[in-house]
Amino acid sequence: MPLGGLVTLLILLPNLLVVFFPPTGLPGAAGKKTALTTTMGIIERVGQVSAFVIPFFYPIKIQGSLETASLAGMILALIFYYVNWGRYALRGRTFRLLFEPCLGIPIPLAISPVIYFLAAAGLFHSWVLLAAAVVLGIGHIYVSRLEWQRAKASIEIAG
Q1: What pTM did the predictor assign?
Q2: Among 24, 64, 142, 144, which is 20 to 30 Å from 43 by CA?
Q3: Domains held by the chain: number
């Protein structure tokens, strides 16, 4: 049985924080939806579903330097992802913490899973997962950037 599904489960696990401990300080309603934002939202969802499902069909085999380097990249991205989820949980669960830069990296909770799945594509030697990770990156980073701008705008209005 392929164990590639662990790749998906590990990245989804901390998202349960939002389910059980929803964010506080939600900004007002999003701005007017445009054709671009709607399209990017669809691209984000296609990338998410694809990147989450594809690993289930692959075994995890570490046989050489590509797999070792890919696994190292995955572990580093996952640690950074978990650290940022920890920051969200421990610093008041405010909406802005889901998007606020960390160590100079913008929208870390959007960028780190993309890096994670790009590295997983190397681990699995999967062009299909590579394509899914690129699609995920295009949509998820764009949508998250809009949410970060919305969060910043609400802080400026409130402040």
Answers
A1: 0.93
A2: 24
A3: 1
